[in-house]
TrEMBL record:
<protein>
    <recommendedName>
        <fullName>Restriction endonuclease type IV Mrr domain-containing protein</fullName>
    </recommendedName>
</protein>
<feature type="domain" description="Restriction endonuclease type IV Mrr">
    <location>
        <begin position="4"/>
        <end position="114"/>
    </location>
</feature>
<dbReference type="InterPro" id="IPR011335">
    <property type="entry name" value="Restrct_endonuc-II-like"/>
</dbReference>
<dbReference type="InterPro" id="IPR007560">
    <property type="entry name" value="Restrct_endonuc_IV_Mrr"/>
</dbReference>
<dbReference type="InterPro" id="IPR052906">
    <property type="entry name" value="Type_IV_Methyl-Rstrct_Enzyme"/>
</dbReference>
<dbReference type="InterPro" id="IPR011856">
    <property type="entry name" value="tRNA_endonuc-like_dom_sf"/>
</dbReference>
<dbReference type="Pfam" id="PF04471">
    <property type="entry name" value="Mrr_cat"/>
</dbReference>
Amino acid sequence: MSENWKDYQDNAAEFFRSLGLSAETDVSIKGVRTSHDVDVVVRSKHVGFETLWLVECKLWKSPVSKLHILALREIVHDTGADRGIVLSESGFQSGAVEAANLTNVQVTSLAKLTEETSQDVFAMRLRELFDRMETCRETYWEMDKGYRIEQGLRPETGGYGYSAIFVMDTCKELLSRAIRGRFPVEPGTIPAMFFLPDLPATFRSAGEVVEALEPHMAELEAKLATAKARLHGTSEP
């Protein structure tokens, strides 16, 4: 564990980055009433929706009190953040825990967060990827076959080239297995993996699946967004 507060703060930010989230330290964030200095601001964005978490790092020798939890609750409310998190390796006073219960402020330690939360977050990201894939599928089938070929979303019948449907089928199969916790997952058993030759031979965790599929999902979303914009005569993304 970190010996000084700055290292502790940096380690907290790095933890969230390791989950594929954006994390900045020492951020001044504007609220409705005033601006607030926050130790770590964590953001993620999928399908046009942004999630905002505010993290306070308390590397103290004594447990965190109720007053500090109430203060963060006010900051979360003022900024419209989705969640507040207080990290402390020295624990929390009973009043602090009670002040956090049934609210969108979580009290924990970086050690516990690292041990327990990473799998929960990756499970959430698997479901997000699955939802994004289903949204892509809906967009794909809104376009007729000829237009999909013209936009490079699929090859001519009997031809070779990028195939959005095979990418989606592969992602769906991998994500379905990962969500059910069926590890190890071997994409070599999936016929469509021919179209994603850079995939690892074996996935042993949800994190590995997220890391491998995220760039393919982003590429597919970009291709579909461009095709949809051209179809409707709007500016390309």
